[in-house]
Amino acid sequence: MAEKSAMDSLENEEIKKLRKKLKQQEKKNSEIRDQMAIQRTIFANERTLMAYLRTAIALIGGGFAAVKLSQHVYMEFLGLALMTVGVLLTIYSFYRYFQKQKLIKRQRQDYTHTSHTHAELHEKEASRYGNVD
User: Fold this and answer.
1) Which of 12, 22, 80, 133 is 20 to 30 Å from 48 by CA-CA measure?
2) How many Å apart are CA 129 and CA 76, to the nearest integer?
């Protein structure tokens, strides 16, 4: 009987160690997921800028072709309008990109890891009742 209770206590200690390791790994995983989400947001902002610039270049190129290759006056006006819209789109795209980068940077600075906060709260609650894992 004494051997069985000794084995049970060893198993309980091993389970506690495994639980602690699992909690630590979960913390690391959630922090990695959070950092990767921030990186995905930054890359999405850059992809959006590139899409705007690609569209602006197409507008400017189309406007330039309309001005140079057309014999009609209305096509020259259309070409100038397209080039103007392309330049304005370029300016807007950089404005939007830098505004979003500021927002991302501000939110990144204000970010706190929820896994640490959650773990600290859990430890405080458990210690109140004398249960510490």
Assistant:
1) 80
2) 81
**Which comes out higher in pLDDT, residue 129 or 13?**
13
Kindly give, in sequence order, each residue whose CB lies less than 8 Å from that of residue 35, ignoring residues fewer than 6 positions away. Answer: none
Residues 30 and 114 sit within 8 Å (Cβ to Cβ): yes
Residues 6 or more apart whose CB falls under 8 angstroms from that of 57 comprise 86
Q: Which two tokens stand for residue 81?
A: 């309008």
Q: Which two tokens stand for residue 10?
A: 């060893």
What are the residues whose beta carbons fall under 8 Å from the beta carbon of 92, sequence distance 6 or more? Answer: 52
Q: Rg of the Cα trace of the chain?
A: 30
Amino acid, single-letter form, for residue 4 = K
pLDDT tens digits along 45-90: 999 999 999 999 999 999 999 999 988 999 999 999 999 999 999 9
Sole residue written with tokens 């406007």: 63
Q: Cα(90)–Cα(88) distance, rounded to whole angstroms?
A: 5
Nearest to 80 by CA among 65, 67, 61: 67
